[in-house]
Design goal:
By secondary structure, the chain is α/β, with parallel strands linked by helices. The protein folds into two domains: about 5-225, Rossmann fold, CATH 3.40.50; about 230-300, Alpha-Beta Plaits (2-Layer Sandwich), CATH 3.30.70.100. It has helices at about 45-55, 75-80, 95-105, 110-125, 140-150, 170-185, 200-205, 220-230, 240-250, 275-285, 300-310; strands spanning about 5-15, 20-30, 35-40, 60-65, 70, 80-85, 160-165, 190-195, 205-210, 215-220, 230-235, 260, 265-270, 295. The strands form three sheets. The chain has a six-stranded mixed sheet with strand order 6-7-8-3-9-10, with helices on both faces. A four-stranded antiparallel sheet has the order 2-1-4-5. The longest helix is centred in the middle third of the chain and has 16 residues, at about 170-185. The protein starts with 5 loop residues before the first strand and ends in a 12-residue tail after the last helix.
Length: about 325
């Protein structure tokens, strides 16, 4: 992405809190209509990067520009062209969606003769008509987060920052937010999305930056990052906790092996082809481990995340978009 076409630019962003380096040289750019996924384990520096880009934290070193405005030198102009939806909903639950959007329109100093048309436009565009005149306290999690995102759009920002927007939502709520993000990108908004859900980044992001302990450890498209693992995964499911404990013990020595206790699932990287898979399955069987099913599959973004950072993500939910 050339600098001329970038809406969001971060170059060597660094932030320290005492001896802790929360962000260490983070660099990326996002153009119109693009979604960049910023991924990393808890404490990796994702929210710190967002706060610096949105003028909520000072930048210790490096630089950032939003729509051509320097974040450090011209924060007031930056605030006029960005929208931010943080991890907690910022709406007033006593007000309706329409009243909340009116409040945000006033905060953004939208001209009075433009407010009503803009609010109606957003309610229609994001299919909020069925609940727009009910108090936000009555909304589902997905409806509340949708309102939170829409509130960040009142001033028609060129850049939108979504900091873990689907955390805590059920599958339907997540799918509603995903639809909103896709619609915004299609309309030309540059979006920075932080998330701990790898399936979310895989479905929404054009480009991904993985950070760990404040440093960038990988960048690329979802397809490129998954290709970096360079090996298939033997996924094994067992029927009981006892089988799971034994399978976990027998596969613990394999580099990169991981487990999901909730699903009684063991994932083992396969570097020697089918022979290695057969040997492992035979070892489990001879050790008395019962196997419900298994598959040899290509790596997912979740496998890639684990390989790059050494940290597992939260268990993924089964979600239909």
């Amino acid at each position: 992405m050339s600098r001329m076409n970038s809406v969001i630019e971060a170059a060597g962003l660094t932030k320290r809190f005492g001896d802790v380096v929360a962000a260490d040289g983070v660099t990326f750019s996002i153009g119109r209509g693009q979604v960049l996924g910023l991924l990393g384990p808890n404490g990796a520096g994702k929210t710190t990067a967002v706060k610096m880009l949105t003028t909520l934290l000072s930048i210790d070193s490096g630089s950032a520009r939003i729509a051509g405005f320097d974040v450090a030198r011209d924060p007031e102009s930056v605030r006029q062209v960005i929208g931010l939806a943080g991890q907690a909903a910022a709406v007033d639950e006593k007000l309706t969606a329409r009243e909340n959007l009116e409040l945000f329109a006033r905060l953004y100093k939208l001209p009075r003769n433009r407010r009503r048309s803009r609010i109606n436009e957003l309610i229609d565009r994001f299919d909020m008509g069925s609940f727009a005149d009910r108090p936000a306290a009555t909304y589902s999690g997905g409806q509340r987060r949708r309102l939170d995102i829409v509130a960040a759009l009142v001033a028609e920002p060129l850049a939108l920052f979504l900091d873990e927007p689907t955390t805590g939502l059920d599958p339907r709520g997540r799918a509603e937010v995903w639809d909103s993000v896709r619609a915004l990108a299609a309309a030309g908004t540059a979006i920075l999305l932080t998330t701990q859900y790898l399936d979310e980044a895989d479905r929404l992001a054009d480009h991904i930056v993985v950070i760990d302990q404040g440093r960038t450890v990988a960048t690329g498209t979802p397809v490129e990052l998954k290709a970096e693992v360079g090996r298939d995964i033997l996924e094994i499911h067992v029927p009981t906790d006892g089988d799971f404990a034994r399978a976990r013990e027998l596969t613990a020595a394999v580099p990169g092996a991981s487990v999901n206790a909730d699903r009684r699932q063991v994932d083992v990287p396969i570097t020697e082809g089918a022979e290695q898979s057969l040997r492992l399955l035979r070892t489990l069987e001879e050790s008395g481990v019962r196997i419900d099913d298994f598959q040899l599959r290509q790596p997912t973004l979740d496998d890639t995340f684990l390989a790059l950072t050494g940290s597992p993500t939260k268990p993924l939910e089964e979600v239909q978009p």
